[in-house]
Write a structure and sequence with these properties.
- The structure is a single chain.
- This protein has 99 residues and is mainly α.
- The chain contains four helices and no strands.
- Helix 2 packs antiparallel against helix 3.
- It is elongated, with a radius of gyration of 22 Å.
């Protein structure tokens, strides 16, 4: 991807949960506000960054909306804890002990 953040491509956004996407959206909106403020005061060095941040925001909104409509799959996050592993191990060993 030539324009935009390198870590916010559609393939990377597919792997991110909705709650993290909302946080990224808030960060991008704050950055856009700061860039617009810098532009208004004449302190902005890279005008291309404005365009990149706007595209990132649009990309995040698109991913969120596609997930709402069921077009794009929601990532499945596997939570592996020590307690879950022991319960599975105990359940598997219980029938073996009875036999």
């Amino acid at each position: 991807m030539s324009i935009g953040s390198k870590n916010l491509g559609p393939a990377e956004l597919d792997k991110i949960e909705d709650s993290v996407l909302v946080e990224e959206l808030k960060k991008a909106k704050e950055e856009l506000f700061n860039l617009r403020f810098q532009s208004a005061t004449g302190q902005l060095e890279s005008h291309g960054r404005l365009r990149a941040v706007k595209r990132d925001i649009a990309r995040i909104y698109t991913i969120i909306r596609e997930r709402e409509l069921g077009i794009r799959a929601i990532p499945v996050v596997e939570v592996k804890t020590a307690a879950a592993k022991t319960k599975k191990t105990e359940a598997a060993e219980a029938p073996a002990k009875e036999a």
